[in-house]
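Sequence in, structure out.
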Amino acid sequence: MTSKECPSCKTSNPESASYCRKCGTRFPEHTKPGKSHMCHIENFAIKKQSNGKFLVEWNAINADKVTINGRDVTGQNRFIATVKDSQMILLRVDNTTSFDVKEVNVVYDSQTIYKDKVVERTVTSATNVVTIILLIVFIIISAFSLHYAYRLEDRNYSGERFLSNIFGYKSYLLINGSNEGRTVNIPTHGASLMYDVKTNASEYEVLDLPKWCTLEKNDSYFIIKATKNRQSNRTANIRIKTRNDEVTMCLDQAVYKPQRLLVNDKKVVDSNLSASSGQITYQVNTDADSYEINSLSSWFRVITQGTESFTISYEENPKRTERTDWFKVKSEGMEVKINLIQVAQKITGQIKDVTVEHNVFKNGVKGMKILVDFSVQNMKGIDGSCAVYFYYENGNRVKDTNGSYATSDNQAATHKTIKPNYDSSSYTDVEIFMPYNELEVGTGKHNLKFYCKIWEYSTSSAISVAESQYYSFTLTNN
């Protein structure tokens, strides 16, 4: 079986193949004898559907590739496009010798407008080029002369006026296919709206354009660009005018109202702050032009504010209790509440060393002297104590029933009160005395132990700050 090579991908194909099996390229000899190899678009149509959808239909002749806005739709003859405001749709067909283009601008609330482009890439022929050009010109002039008189009354015809006195004509001006006035509702955030112009006049004008609109004018269409409306509802009547005809359009634009204000993508924000001073940054997402921050307290403030974020700084919490506050971010009637929760300064402490001296007399009473080294933080001006608690070696409490050196439940104990003068205070050799006779253990030899604990009294109940390990000793009573 004989074969032939694809000119595009160099793949071998059967001699009778019309398209390349690999890349789909149409072989030139597939075109019928006497027909052009140029690709072109036939039966091109736009049909408006609901919800901003437009159905695009076409027939691609002699085309190897078909794209819509760069999307490959080869082998198809229809496509559904979704349009929000105004969008250009470009249908392009290609083969190895030429391409054809249909440009379509569709507007959500108007009819479609399009213009054609057909460009031949290469022409290779031994025929005399001048002869061909003259023949084409002759055919065009003949066709124009034959049909001009019949089309002057056709509203879709936009021919020149230079033969009108010979054939006679009726003037017309069509805006998007109509010569009647209309009201155009322009989106509040602004938009560019394109309108097709068909007229047999030599020129047209767009008059009475308001300051909030700009105009881009072409021979066959014009584009009105409206800005975002930040003031109040506004209306303007513009006129599209030729020498004999005029069409009025009413432009109506409601005021733009922002719909979105979020901080950290939320409507209510809870921020947990450390007890020490610091900073925190918030991200702002809004379609408004600006926003404001208010209801600030004395212990936090805004230090930077931009279009998309702001940063606040906050002071150290001097209290030993948690504190809360809030502020708001506002814009165009919208607001976001930001709650601040700052934890209390935590009192901390460490018992560094404990030493014991036995058989010490104080005020004529024999006992043991306990020396404690410790430090505390964030306890300035707060009452506290360093206490010592006594136990038997097996963990049972040692009793002191007379209450002189005992807890409320008669456990043998002693203490020394403290009230630090600084946020961070250190104590060395704090002396705590315990008489032996207050340890009610009876006669004989007893193995005992004790440990130390630091307390703070900033609230109604004592709070433990730090405690030591156990220290063992032997007590003998005769």
